[in-house]
Amino acid sequence: MTTPSTDIQIPNIEKELNSLWNTPKTETWQQNKLSKACLFTLIIFVKEQRRVKYLQQLVDTILDRFPCRIIFIQGESESTESYCRATVSNVICGKTTLTAGSAVACDQIVINVSKDQFFRVPFIVTPHIVPDLPVYLLWGQNPFEEFEIFPHLQHYASRVIFDSECADSLSRFCDDMQETLTSLKIDLMDISWALISNWRDMMVQLFDTQEKIKELGEIKSVIILYNAGKTDTMQHPEIQALYFQAWLACCLKWEYRKIEKYMNDVVISYAGPLHPHIVALSPQDYPELPPGSIHSIEIRFIDNQTYVILAKPNISQVVVHVSSEQTCEMPFTLPLPNVHKGMTFLREIFFSKLGNHYSEMLKILKQINYKVFTTKP
Description:
Dihydrodipicolinate Reductase, domain 2, 8-stranded mixed sheet, 12 helices, disordered C terminus
C-alpha cells in the first residue's frame, strides 16, 4: 500500500488517486510490475471507532482475492468536532503475487466524518462509484437503523452485507430484518449467519438419512459451548450460538417457551411436536478460536444416546463421538471449513443467499429477545 495522502480537498479525490498511480512512492511499487484492477465497488460504513479494525480485517480478506475500489466511511458518533476529511491510497491485492515480480492493486478512499456531517456523505461517495460494475455495501451495524447514508446508497447496491453483532436490540433487529426481507429487492447477507454456515452444513451431513432425520425428533437436550472471549470489536460473542440454536429450533418446528439463566449458562426451553426440548448456551474460554466461535455441541436423545461434536479448527474438521448406555461407536470426522477467512468466507458473504430458514430463525430470536442486546456495551 502506498502511504495514504494527507487530508485532501473533497473535490480533488480522483485527481489525487490519479497522481498516486502516476507517481508511485514506495519501493514495492518501483520493484514490481503493477496492474490496476477493479471487480466492483465496496462501500464500508462504521460509526463506532472500536469497529474500524475489525472491518479493515474483513476488507483485507476481500482484497486478498477480489481487487475492488474501497470507499471506507469512518463515522464518529461521539465527536464534538465538526469535520469531513478524505485520504486516498493504492492497495496491493493478493500479496502472494509479489514474489513473482508483479501484483494487482486498486484504489482506496477513506472518509472520516463527524455525525453532524453524515448528510454530506452520499453526495461525496456517489461520484466515485465505478460505473457498470456491481456495488456492495458493508455496514458495521444494522443498516436499517441508519437513515442518513444507507437509504441514499442502497439504490446503487447489488448486495448489502451487515453485522448483526452490533445490533442495539435483538428484537428490533429481527423486526427490521423481517420487514426488509419482504420489501427490499436486493441481496442481503448477515455476517453472523455466514459464520455458522459450516456448522449448519455439518449437521445436514451428519443427519443425512430419513432414519437419522427422524431421530432428531427425539432430541431431549442440546448443549452448545462457544468462545466467550470479548474484544474491543466483539462485545456479543453469544450471537453465533444463539443463531445456531434458533436455526435448529426452526428446522425441527420447536416452539419457544422461556429463557433462564443458570449460573453462567443460558437455558432456553422449547416445546416440540412430541415432547419438550432444552438448549443450553455455555460460554467458555477458548483463546485458540475467534470470539463467538462454536467449539462443540452435545446432543442428548430421549433414549440417552449422545452425540458429542467437537471442532478441530487446525484441520477444518469436527470429530463426532456417538454413544449410548450399551455401546460406544468409533469416532469419525466430518468437514468443518474455516469460515472466518479465505475463499470459504468470501463465498458466503458474496454469493450465498438468505433463505426461508433465516427468516424463520428471526421469528424465534424475536421471541427470545436475549437481554444482552437491549443496551449497548
